[in-house]
User: Fold this.
Amino acid sequence: MGKTVQTTPFRSRYRIGFGNDLHRLAEGRKLILGGVTIPFEKGPVGHSDGDALAHAVCDAMLGAAALGDIGQHFPNSSPQWHNASSLLFLVHARELLDQAGYGIVNVDSTIGLERPKLAPYIPRMREKLAGALGIQQTQISVKAKTGEGVDAVGEGAAVRADAIVLIESWTLNKPPRSLRRGQIRSV
Ligand SMILES: [Zn+2]
Assistant:
């Protein structure tokens, strides 16, 4: 029924992925971001260490390769990941990208946190994340901003992180010679 659509066999060597994460902050929890422990009276509530930055980067990596999401690969119900360092999620996500034939071009990210100021910790976060991902620190950017006193971040009730990742196929180092005629399918 309906229209005939021609599918173009387009394959790019580049793919992009986006991830975000939010954790509620509670007293008596360690604040860990990008694998770095930051002295503060509150920290994220979560099954693992609640590292919102690592989780956002992980989801962006999985998203770039259309490999599902963090909940699927690291389920809350699994004792294996209980209180696990989220850097291990990144190591595993990197392995999944390797298996799928992709390398990371670069990562950009932003943390939303009202307090404390994160600037002093950012170089160490980049070092830790780059180490877990097996990339250079120049390939990873971490930025931080407050919530301007509004929403859950601004009220100090939550930490949020957004990340975007560009990956490149190892097997498609050249663009296709020509765009071939695609298959016809009906939708
Ligand atoms: Zn998370």
